[in-house]
Amino acid sequence: MSRYTGPRARVSRRLGTNIFGTQGETQALEKRPYPPGVHGRTRRRGNTSEYLVQLQEKQKARLSYGLTERQFRVVYKEASRREGVTGENMLKLLELRLDNVIYRSGWGSTRPQARQFVSHGHVTVNGKRVNIPSYRVRKGDLIEIREKTRTNAIVQWNKDVLDRTPPAWLEKTGDFSVKVYAEPLREQIDIPLREQLIVELYSK
What is the CATH number of the domain that holds 198? Predict the structure, then answer.
């Protein structure tokens, strides 16, 4: 499965926010809070087109959750078929990905790291090993880190040092287990996105 492997700080500077969640991106944004490139300092923001703003919001969402363009479009199409607000439906579907649940639970420091944990078979759902990062969890599902992985130094460090509190839609049932309490609400999703702009982009 293809994924972005280029310079992360450059992408974050281009989009104006920490996309991949690393410390290096935060430092790069503080040190050089302008787009990359020779004209980054002098580029006039006032002339930004409506299409560019919509495209950047889509790129923020797609890269933050680690999806390809094709995967992201599939998520959007499913969200548009569901009842309710399309943009909110889309974010809910993205949040319910298994790799995102591992990240939200604090076992992975970033979504790419959480994705790796899943693809390497370190996670179970309702007692069964699942190695598909895009697997969509449902209300009532129990997600756990496998017994032999719990002593892993990286997992231990993430749990103890990050000390990330799972969102309200995830119920912590142990140090290495969470249960999906309900589908996430928009106010429980803290990613800085204007999802309506993404909907406008795809509905053209």
Answer: 1.10.1050.10
